[in-house]
Amino acid sequence: MSQIQVQKLTKIVLCPISGEMTEDAAKVLEQVKQCKIPPSKVKCPKCGQEIEATKFALHLIKHCRVSGKSVVCDICGEKLKSMGDFMRHIREHLTVAELRNGMWVWYCTVCGREFTSKKSVLVHILKSHEVEK
Fold this sequence. Notes:
Elements: E1 6-8, E2 13-15, E3 20-22, H1 25-34, E4 41-43, E5 50-52, H2 56-59, E6 64-67, E7 70-73, E8 79-80, H3 83-93, E9 95-100, E10 103-108, E11 114-115, H4 118-129
Antiparallel strand pairs: 1-9, 2-3, 4-5, 6-7, 7-8, 9-10, 10-11
């Protein structure tokens, strides 16, 4: 049996479906693929709060610290230059991919949807799980 190739964009991947945060992208991918029906509510792996899936990425603003002119991600410790950079970074915590038939398939870890490009999944998270202002 061949090993599945998995890709992640950040050191830690969040899986609000299972309520976990981990460095093991393959574990998150397995959990996401098992989700047949997108949940309406998910669990924040950082604080345990139950959140509407449509507002999940927006909830994650609570998990940053402003330090001088920087914003620090409380999930992985990465220092970012602005709140906009932090929100882009948060979307990356919610993204995982697998190599399937020679192409990367990207997944949203909030709802389990599949995408053919990294940009598509990041835009999906912005529009579907962040509730744009």
